[in-house]
Write a structure and sequence with these properties.
- The protein is α/β, with parallel strands linked by helices and about 375 residues long.
- It is built from 13 helices and 14 strands.
- Helices cover about 40% and strands about 20% of the residues.
- Helix 12 (about 315-335) packs across helix 13.
- About 55% of the residues are buried.
């Protein structure tokens, strides 16, 4: 009897025996035929190198675990990763090469939202199942133009809803909003305004943007602080988010700072992050989680496996591992690498992943459920579950 997807996930998540990835050893024609090629376009250098490197590490570790578990009928996953250098033009070229390669069973794209949006038409037209790790709405919407594209990661609307709830609970009335000036930042602005506009509390009094490549954000921070906010919301990846927080503290701001999920980075954060809140999954505070079911046990094991291999943990790594696991499950369910069959299998996903509950339907291609998100608070330079 073929194992269920839930059983498959549990078996693979708990696999800790690490072996060389398939295709790395010398093999003949038979080995090449048995390989299942998954391609990945990631930010291994440039402004988003930290998150791209974490995705790369997670994918390589997960490939080893899946191959070691033998859950694909003896077939092995082979991973081909290309560096897009955090550049949309290069990313589009990489993805184009992948879609034109008939040996590629599926594609995983990285953190760059503008990149997956730019390549969406060619990816969809080529009918290659693709899972994006970018935290943008446009990765999977409009759905009619993203039939073959799926997403693992936090949705801006879910992110903003939790932040808005935290602002209201804290009694904040004047909110300063700082975002990047790309598709991801625009999602943040729209989502936060949608949550706060027209409400009696927590009104946005100032909004400013900065480039994802900016290393000096002091002027932007001062612009927002001039509006005298009693809370700041920062919508940026980890390095810039901490840079914004540090600049605000240096300027004398002592109020609360709220980060969206993309700000999750290294397990340990820089000094001066007191009175900050992060919306993310439980992964960044996994030590606080009691393993009361197999899914939570698998998440704790994944955290241990990753930190044992790489020395520390980087927040979004579980998204990449879940993306690869979903593809492996879809390939197992469909019985092969036919692109349409794999796509159809992905549309029925319903599992507890390493990041949290994952659900995909024909009407919704974004897998991570809102229930996966929690509020984390900075404590002794680490994120902890808010109590």
């Amino acid at each position: 009897m073929r194992p269920t997807r839930s059983a498959l996930l549990a078996a693979v998540a708990s696999a800790i025996v690490l072996v060389p990835a398939a295709g790395c050893d010398a093999g003949g024609e038979t080995q090449a035929k048995e390989d299942i090629l998954i391609a990945a376009d990631l930010e291994l250098s440039g402004a988003a190198a930290a998150i791209g490197t974490a995705y790369d590490r997670a994918l390589r570790l997960k490939v080893e675990q899946i191959n070691a578990a033998g859950v694909l009928g003896g077939r092995k996953i082979k991973l081909e990763v290309r560096d897009n250098r955090s550049d949309k033009t290069l990313s589009t070229a990489n993805i184009g090469d992948f879609t034109n390669n008939r040996e590629v069973a599926a594609i995983i794209t990285g953190a760059c939202g503008d990149c997956v949006i730019a390549a969406a038409k060619s990816t969809n037209d080529a009918k290659v199942p693709t899972i994006s790790l970018a935290p943008v709405t446009g990765a999977t919407a409009p759905l009619a133009e993203r039939k073959y594209i799926f997403k693992v990661g936090v949705n801006p609307a879910d992110d903003a809803a939790l932040i808005a709830g935290e602002l209201r609970s804290a009694g904040s009335t004047r909110v300063g909003l700082l975002t990047t000036d790309d598709a991801y930042g625009l999602d943040g602005q729209n989502a936060m305004k949608g949550e706060l506009d027209g409400t009696e509390q927590a009104k946005i009094v100032s909004t400013t943007q900065f480039k994802p490549t900016d290393t000096d954000v002091n002027q932007r921070v001062r612009t927002v602080l001039d509006a005298d906010p009693d809370a700041l919301v920062v919508w940026a990846f980890a390095d810039q988010a901490q840079r914004v927080a540090g600049s605000a503290r240096s300027a004398g701001y002592t109020g609360p700072i709220y980060f969206d999920a993309a700000a999750a980075g290294d397990l340990f954060m820089a000094q001066g992050m007191e009175n900050t809140t992060l919306v993310f999954t439980q992964t960044m505070a996994i030590d606080d989680v009691i393993a009361t079911n197999p899914a939570k046990s698998a998440r704790k094991q994944w955290f241990r496996d990753y930190t044992s291999r790489y020395g520390s943990y980087f927040g979004p790594a579980s998204f990449a591992a879940d993306a690869l696991q979903l593809l492996a499950s879809a390939i197992e369910q469909s019985g092969g690498t036919d692109r349409d069959a794999v796509r159809d299998a992905l549309e029925s996903v319903k599992v507890d992943g390493l990041s949290g509950p994952l659900r995909i339907t024909p009407e919704n291609h974004s897998a991570l459920m809102p229930q996966a998100l929690v509020a984390l608070v900075a404590n002794s330079n680490r994120w902890r579950l808010k109590v």
